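Listing S7. Sequence submitted for prediction.
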Amino acid sequence: AIFSPLNKGLLNKFPYKNLCAAVTVVTVFLCLVLPLILLISLLINESIEIYKAVESEKSRWINGITAIIQYLNNHPLFARLEINQTVITAKSAEILKALSGFIFNNLSAITQNTVILIIQFAVTFYALFFFLRDGNDFLDVITRYLPINKHHMDTFIHHFLTTAKATLKITFVIGGLQGLIGGLLFYFTGIERPLIWGVIMFGLAVVPAVGCSLVWAPAGIIMLFQGHIGPGIAILLVGSLVISTVDNLLRPVLVGQNLQMHPLLIFLSTLGGIAAFGVSGFVLGPVIASLFLASWRLFSE
C-alpha cells in the first residue's frame, strides 16, 4: 500500500508490469531492509553495552538517579518521606536492564537463525512482487465472491488503506523524527549510548501526551544534578520546544484531518501488537486496528 504509488508512477512511464514491480521491490529493499540491518546490528551492540554498564553499576544514569535521591533526602520537605535510596536505585537499574535486555533479546532472536530469516525475506519479497503486479486483479476476484457490492468493497479498502497509511506515517515518520532529534541531542550533550536512547524515544512516541518526554526529561534533570548545567538546560529546552512540538506540527501536514486513528487507539493497538507478535507487532498492531476501524465503518453503512 505504501509503495504502490511508486509502482503506478512507473507503469505510467513504462508499460511493463514485471519490470515496474521488480524496480519497486528493489527500492523497498534498498530503502528499508539495508538500513534496518545496519540499525539492528548497531542496536544489539549498544544494548549489550548498556546492560553491562548497568550490571557493573557504572551507568551515568544510575549515578544521576542516586544524586537526585541524595539531594531530595537532604531537602527538609522531602526528608520526611524517608526515600529509600538503595531500593529506588536498584529498581532504576532493573528498568534499564529490562529495556536493554528486551531490545537485545528481540533483535538477536530475529537474527539468530540466518537461514530462516533469509527464507522469510525471500517469501516476503516474492509475494510483494505479485501483490504489486497483480494486486488489483486479486481484489477484483475477492470482491466478486463476497456478498457485498463493489462500492462497499472499494469504500472498505479505501478506509483501511488510508487509515493504515496515516497511522504508519504518525508512528514511523513523526516517531522516527522525534527519536532522531533526541538521539542527536543526547550525542551532542555527551549522554552515553545515544542510539539506543533515540530508538527508545522512537518507541515511546506512540504514548499519548507524554511520549518521548519519559526519556529526555529525566535525562535533562539528571544532567543538571550532575553539575552539567549547559547540557541539562539544552536537553530540557530542545525537548520541550522541538521534540514535543514535532507531532503537533507534522501530523496535520502528513495525514490531514480525515480518517485519523485516535492516539489512545494507536497506543493500545501497538502494545497489543507487541504482546501478541513481538517486535513486528509495532507495525501489525496498528494495521490490525486500522482493519477493525474500516470494518466498523462498513458495518455502520
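Caption to Listing S7: primary sequence and predicted C-alpha cells for the chain studied. The longest helix spans residues 17-55. Residues 91 and 97 are 10 Å apart (CA to CA).
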